[in-house]
Amino acid sequence: MNREKVSAYFHRIGLPLPEVIVPDGELLRKLQFAFCTAVPYENLDILRGIPLSLQEDDLFEKIVTRNRGGFCFELNGSFGWLLRELGYEVTDYFARYLRGESSIPMRRHRVLKVLATDGVYLADVGIGEICPREPLKLEEGIVQEQLGESYRLEKEDFLGWVLWDLHKGQWRKFYSFTEEPQLNVDFQAACFWCEKHPSSPFTVQEMFSLKTKEGRITLDGNVYKEFTAQGVTVTECTPEEMPAVYARFGLSPKA
Fold this sequence. Notes:
Largest sheet: 8 strands, antiparallel
Helix content: 25-40%
Structural class: alpha+beta
Number of strands: 12
Strand content: 25-35%
Strand order of the largest sheet: 4-3-2-1-8-7-6-5
Order of helices and strands: HHHHHEEEEEEEEHEEEEH
C-alpha cells in the first residue's frame, strides 16, 4: 500500500486512516459515504473543453491534490484505485443507465464489484442523481434499505444484473450491468463520447451534485436544488450568485 497517497486520500474525504486496515463491508460503507459526501459529481472540464484522463495518477492529482470531482468514469475509477490499495479485490463493469429511458441505452456508466472479507458488494460513487450512498450487497432479490431509500438487485437474461430503486411507492429500473471485467482502457471510448458527442448531456451546462447526510445538493445550469427528507428547495441563481453556489461544491468558476 502507498500509505502516503492513501493517507492523503483519507484526508480528502474526511476520514482518519486506521492503523490497521481490515477490508470489510463496514470500512467500505464508511468509505463510500465519505467519498460521495466530499467529492462532487461535476462536469467542469467537459464544459471547458479540457480532455479527461482516466489514468490513476491523473485522477489522484485532480480529485485529491486539486480537490476536484468528476463523473462516473473518473470517480469510480479513482475510488477503485483506493479500494485496491486497501486490500479489496475490485472488478470494473460497464453499465447501462436505465432510469428515465424509453429504450435500452448504450453502456456509458462504470460500476465496481468489490470483494470484501465478509462478502461481495456493488459500489458506486459516480452518479449525480438520487442513488445509494452506501454499498449494496451483490445479492439477488433482497430489499436493501439505507438512509430512507430502498433498492434491490434482480437478474435478467439480456441486461444481466438490474438495480431497482423504490420511487413514490413504485419500483423502477435504475441501471444494469453484466459481469465482463473491464480494463481502464475499455472506458475511454464511452468517456470520449460523453465529452464530445452532440447527443451527450454533459456538454450543455453545469451538472453538479454532492451527497449529504440528508440527501444531496445539485446545480443544473443556474438552477440550484437542495434535497432533504422534508422535500426540495429550488433556487434560480443570478450570474452574481454563481460563484457562491460553485463554492458549495468545493468548486470555482475560474478554477
